[in-house]
Specification:
heterodimer, A: 7 helices, 77% helix, 0% strand, elongated, B: alpha+beta, Arc Repressor Mutant, subunit A, three-stranded antiparallel β-sheet, 4 helices
C-alpha cells in the first residue's frame, strides 16, 4: 500500500493489510543470514567424518580430538564475525533476541551433556543430536523459516537411527544429519537474505 | 464494531510505524522513514502523536556526532496494538458474509 494520505481513516481490511505487509517486510529484513549454521555445520561435518574415518581405519582411540579442534576454530571465528557485523538499532529486535536465546540455551546445555556422557562412559552423539534438533526446531519457529524445521526433523531422525546402530557409526550419522539439517537450511537462509 | 477500533491506529502511517516497532525493539527515525515510505515531516508529526498517546518512547541522542532519534514501543503501545489487532479479528469474524 502506498503511504499517500496518512490521515485518511483506514478500513478494517486496509488496517489488516498494513499490519501484515509491514510485519512480513520487517521479519524478512531481520532474518539471520545463516553464517553460524554454515560455520558450525561445516565444522561438525568435518569432525564427524574425521572421527568416523579414524575409528574405522585405526579402531577406537584418539579420534575424539577431532571434536576438540571444532570449538577451537569455531568460537574465535564466530566471535570475530559477530564483532565485525554491522549492527544498527533496527537490528536490536525481538526476533534476534529469541534466536540468540535459543542458541545460548543450547550452548549452556551442550557442555553439561557432553560432560555427563563422558563421565559415565556413554556415547555422546545421540543426545547431542536430540538437543541440536531441538535448537534448530526452535530457530525455525522463531525465524518462521520452514527449512530449519525440516533440518531439525532430519537431525532427530538421525538421533533415532543412532538408537539402533553401533556407536562407531554415530559420528557418520551425525555428519550426514548435520550436512542435511544445518548446511542446506543455512545455505537457503543465506540465499533468502541475499535476494532481499 | 468499526467504531470500537482505536482511532489513533486507524491511520496508515501510524499503524505501519507501530507494526514495525512491534517486530523490532527499537528503530531510528531514518529506518522508520524507509520502512513506511513517509516524508520526514509527516513521520515526525505522526511519531509525536504516538508519543503523546504513550504508545512509543522517543529518545534523542547522538551517534558519531550526528543526531539520532530512536523510537521504541512502550508496554502501553504493545497493549494497544494487541487490542487493536484482536478487535480487527473480531470484526472479521462477526462481519456478515
Amino acid at each position: 500500500m502506498k503511504m499517500e494520505n496518512s490521515e485518511s481513516k483506514l478500513t478494517p481490511e486496509q488496517s489488516l493489510l498494513v499490519i501484515h505487509q509491514t510485519i512480513e517486510k520487517a521479519k524478512r529484513e531481520v532474518q539471520e543470514n545463516g553464517f553460524h549454521l554454515l560455520l558450525w555445520g561445516t565444522l561438525v561435518v568435518i569432525a564427524g567424518l574425521v572421527d568416523f574415518y579414524m575409528s574405522y581405519t585405526q579402531g577406537p582411540g584418539n579420534q575424539h580430538y577431532a571434536w576438540a579442534v571444532m570449538p577451537a576454530i569455531g568460537i574465535p571465528v564466530a566471535i570475530i564475525y559477530e564483532s565485525r557485523r554491522k549492527k544498527t538499532p533496527a537490528q536490536r529486535n525481538t526476533i534476534h533476541n529469541w534466536y540468540g536465546l535459543v542458541w545460548l540455551g543450547f550452548g549452556i546445555s551442550l557442555p553439561m551433556l557432553i560432560a555427563y556422557t563422558v563421565m559415565h562412559h556413554l556415547p555422546p552423539t545421540q543426545p547431542i543430536m536430540v538437543v541440536t534438533g531441538f535448537a534448530l526446531f526452535m530457530s525455525g519457529i522463531v525465524l518462521s523459516f520452514r527449512p530449519l524445521i525440516w533440518g531439525a526433523a532430519v537431525i532427530w531422525a538421525g538421533a533415532v537411527i543412532c538408537l539402533f546402530t553401533a556407536p562407531n557409526w554415530h559420528s557418520l550419522i551425525m555428519a550426514i544429519g548435520v550436512a542435511l539439517g544445518y548446511l542446506i537450511p543455512g545455505y537457503l537462509l543465506q540465499r533468502a537474505k541475499k535476494t532481499q | 464494531m468499526y467504531e470500537d477500533l482505536d482511532n489513533l491506529l486507524l491511520s496508515q502511517l501510524r499503524l505501519a510505524a507501530m507494526s514495525y516497532l512491534m517486530v523490532v525493539k527499537e528503530a531510528d527515525f531514518n529506518t522508520l522513514k524507509e520502512q513506511t515510505g513517509a516524508t520526514s515531516g509527516n513521520l515526525s508529526v505522526q511519531i509525536n502523536k504516538l508519543q503523546e498517546a504513550g504508545y512509543i518512547q522517543v529518545e534523542k541522542t547522538y551517534r558519531n556526532n550526528y543526531p539520532l532519534t530512536l523510537c521504541q514501543i512502550t508496554p502501553a503501545g504493545i497493549e494497544a496494538f494487541e487490542a487493536f489487532y484482536l478487535r480487527l479479528q473480531t470484526y472479521f469474524k462477526e462481519k456478515p458474509e
